[in-house]
Amino acid sequence: MCTSIIYTAGDSYFGRNLDLEISFGEEVVITPRDYEFKFRKMKSLNHHYAITGMAIVQEGYPLYFDGANEEGLGMAGLNFDGPCHYFPEDPEKDNVTPFEFIPYVLGQCKNVGEVKDLIKNLNLVNINFSEKFPLSPLHWLIADKSGESIVVESTKKGLSVYDNPVGVLTNNPEFPQQLNNLSNYQSVSPAQPTNTLAPNTKLELYSRGLGTHMLPGGMDSESRFVKETFTKMHSPEGKDELENVTNYFHLLHAVEQQKGLDEVAPNTFEYTIYSDGVNLTTGTFYYTTYENNQINAVKLDQSKLDSSELLTYPLQTKQAICYQD
């Protein structure tokens, strides 16, 4: 289970929470422009936009969970078990495996409009990376630095591309149903409620925050979709990068999962392994981990992008505490 957002406050910030019960040894990976992306059924990309994101590297290949390119386009894959369906190879279509989808898009596109054109004839084909790394059932949030975003879902009815007016994605159900469910919460507000229940009766407001009384707070994907949409839509804009990055991580941490609360198997719990975000204008990549909630950053060094070797940065997982005495 996961949550991904695009947050615009001056610049735009794109990223996600990764919620799983096990870590795969992910790290920050920068793929420079001349790294050769080999695709199973498509021509290789020998020169492409540089990509920064969270990935695991297997057999020299970066398997991205999420990332953004140097042009300010971001993309994240989130669990979509159930509705997700991948297809056999179709000779009439552009056949891309799901594990290749992020580099296929981020390597070639500058913005959401270009993505829509690129994937018009796309077929997400059912080919595993390896026996050890089978495909995950995913759908994707794609957003650019203008703040525009789309959701891409592959189901039995085919490939669907949806405009995303709220810039939030979680997991099941399919995106149109998630969006429609927001109608049930239109009255949720940061302000104290007006008494429309019994207008002629004086009702005391016994607490602050009663306008959010009906806001869901569960770990399930629909609850997180509603809560994150509400939180993001009412988030302030900071006066500088530091404030905006701080606000951004408060948005993701509003729906993070703590250990011990979401049991997925006997004595096995899903939790937020990391939260990350990239400034789509500067390319600076930020992250926190469950063990270390200090914000860490990797800057995009333009002098290192014209090469063919992956750049990797292990996650800082030891808690950093500022002692004042």
Please tell me about this protein's structure.
The chain is an alpha+beta fold. The chain has a single domain, classed as Penicillin V Acylase, Chain A (4-Layer Sandwich). Helices cover 14% and strands 31% of the residues. It contains 5 helices and 18 strands. The protein has helices at residues 101-106, 112-118, 175-181, 221-233, 241-253; strands at 2-9, 11-20, 27-31, 51-58, 61-69, 73-79, 94-96, 122-124, 138-144, 149-155, 158-163, 168-169, 263-265, 268-269, 271-279, 285-289, 296-298, 311-314. It has an 8-stranded antiparallel beta sheet. A 6-stranded antiparallel beta sheet has the order 12-1-2-15-16-17, with helices on one face. The radius of gyration is 20 Å and the shape is globular. The model has no long low-confidence stretch (mean pLDDT 96).
